[in-house]
TrEMBL record:
Its cofactor is Mg(2+); pyridoxal 5'-phosphate; Ca(2+); Mn(2+). Pfam families: PALP. Coiled coil: none annotated. This is Pyridoxal-phosphate dependent enzyme. Residues 17-304 form the Tryptophan synthase beta chain-like PALP domain. Keywords: Magnesium, Pyridoxal phosphate. It comes from Algoriphagus oliviformis. Gene3D superfamilies: 3.40.50.1100.
Length: 314
């Protein structure tokens, strides 16, 4: 399997530039003091669609052939990838068919339809999502763009760490959350190419810890059941991302829901940042393992900011 090279990632960055934000890297001396290390937050909560997913979706859509574009794109997602793909398709002027479980958050459905995506509802099981998607692809001829297990998506997500390291090249550690693994794999590739002495460490919710268990077992062990506030990280890690993670990720650290809520609250109170639970997981994992990070310079990707403000956990 050949993964995106550094020149592929740079080309993706140039390709998607007109369609995404270059998000800021922010710091907080108050949080540094609490954490006992120096933190640099890459704020993808300010990204288009409110999450890093805008990068991978834009890259995947822009790389389609004219014939593929004519028939549109399709995916199944209950969250940020759905909105990101709908937006990327609307910018490209092509149709997007989004299969969403009936229990997907209302805020996420609104986002998808707001970007012009056509929502196809299904039962809230992975099997129903996959079979409904197959029907949609068969009827429309649309190209399936998976949320993370797809090289063009990983290549797009890798541009986030590229920007972070352009601004802060002298980091000791870079952290990202892990669900399906697209962002983590892209981050790990970029860091490996630019400075392999930087460690890549992931944060994962203890209520959906398949990547943590898979790393230890050396094979993918999907989640049997999940229970976590971090709804963006419920998916089990994908095959392509896992191959990269095994090679280039130093460790996966777990965080409990109370720790995740505490990290969200810290970002909200000290930095006035609205970060969704999934985006706060790396900071929560760091706070739970402070001794490991003592005195280090740590870049943290805050992956998204799509919080239902009517249901804030604090």
């Amino acid at each position: 399997m050949t993964f995106p090279t550094l020149s592929d990632i740079r080309a993706a960055h140039a390709r998607i530039q007109p369609f995404v934000h270059r998000t800021p890297v922010l710091t907080s001396s108050a949080i540094n003091e609490i954490a006992g290390c120096e933190l640099f937050f890459k704020c993808e909560n300010f990204q288009k669609v409110g999450a890093f997913k805008a990068r991978g979706a834009a890259n995947a859509v822009l790389k389609l052939s004219p014939e593929q574009k004519a028939k549109g794109v399709a995916t199944h997602s209950s969250g940020n990838h759905a909105a990101a793909l709908a937006r990327a398709a609307s910018v490209a002027g092509i149709p997007a068919y989004i299969v969403m479980p009936s229990n997907a958050p209302e805020i996420k459905k609104k986002a998808v339809s707001g970007y012009g995506g056509e929502i196809v509802e299904c039962e809230p099981t992975l099997k129903a999502r996959e079979s409904t998607l197959e029907d949609v692809v068969e009827k429309t001829g649309a190209t399936f763009i998976p949320p993370f297990d797809y090289l063009d998506v990983i290549e797009g997500q890798a541009t986030c760490a590229l920007e972070l390291l352009e601004e802060q090249p002298n980091l000791d550690i870079v952290m990202a959350p892990v669900g399906g693994g697209g962002l983590l794999a892209g981050t790990a590739l970029t860091v490996h190419y630019l400075n392999p002495s930087i460690q890549v460490i992931a944060g994962e919710p203890s209520g959906a810890d398949d990547a943590f268990r898979s790393m230890q077992a050396g094979a993918i062990l999907p989640n049997e059941k999940t229970q976590t506030i971090a709804d963006g990280l419920l998916t089990s890690v994908g095959k392509l991302p896992f191959a990269v993670i095994q090679q280039h990720v130093e460790a996966i650290l777990l965080a409990t829901d109370p720790q995740i809520v505490e990290a969200m609250r810290l970002l909200y109170e000290r930095m006035k940042l609205v970060v969704e639970p999934s985006g706060a997981v790396p900071l929560a994992a760091l706070m739970a393992n402070k001794e490991r990070f003592a005195g280090k310079r740590v870049g943290i990707i805050l992956s998204g900011g799509n919080v239902d403000l009517g249901k804030l956990p604090f």
